[in-house]
TrEMBL record:
InterPro entries: Sulf_transp_TsuA/YedE
Entry GO terms, CC: plasma membrane
Keywords: Cell inner membrane, Cell membrane, Membrane, Transmembrane, Transmembrane helix, Transport
Species of the source: Vibrio inusitatus NBRC 102082
Protein name stated in the entry: Membrane protein
Membrane topology of the entry: Multi-pass membrane protein
Origin: domain of life: Bacteria
Major localization listed first in the record, in broad terms: membrane
Regions crossing the membrane: 6-28, 49-69, 81-98, 118-138
PANTHER family listed in its UniProt record: INNER MEMBRANE PROTEIN YEDE, SULPHUR TRANSPORT DOMAIN-CONTAINING PROTEIN
Length: 140
């Protein structure tokens, strides 16, 4: 077995950390995606500009990154549309109950040594590991 450094993952993680730090430094805001998107859905117009720029930048950055690194972007899905929508609904409910998502808790919260974020991220990772195990070994 040979170990190689996953350079693209390392570079991507560095970009995430830098962008989250810059948003906190210059705007005083946490780079949690669920909080940013939910702020767009509220009727307050005071801070919508930076939120739109953040979301548009994520989409454009994802497309440019996929093209630059030759990643495959799926255009067809092998799942039921109702299950896909139901999954999205459950993710939204979970982020509301958990006061944030993995980006807010995992990247920003842990960086600020927030106990709540450390616990939330550990729970996210534990549940995702159990889900993968069940999906691969029990559901088939």
């Amino acid at each position: 077995m040979e170990f190689t450094i996953p350079w693209s993952s390392l570079f991507g993680g560095m970009l995430l950390g830098i962008s989250a730090s810059l948003l906190l430094l210059f705007n005083g805001k946490i780079a949690g995606i669920s909080g940013i998107v939910s702020g767009l859905m509220k009727n307050e117009s005071g801070d919508r500009g930076w939120r739109w720029l953040f979301v548009i930048g994520m989409v454009i950055g994802g497309v440019l990154g996929a093209k630059a690194f030759g990643a495959h972007i799926p255009t067809q899905y092998d799942t039921n549309l109702l299950l896909l929508l139901l999954g999205g609904l459950f993710v939204g409910i979970g982020t509301k109950i958990g006061n944030g998502c993995t980006s807010g808790h995992g990247i920003c919260g842990i960086g600020r040594l927030s106990k709540r974020s450390i616990i939330a991220t550990c729970v996210f990772m534990l549940v995702s590991g159990i889900t993968v195990f069940v999906r691969l070994h029990l559901v088939g």
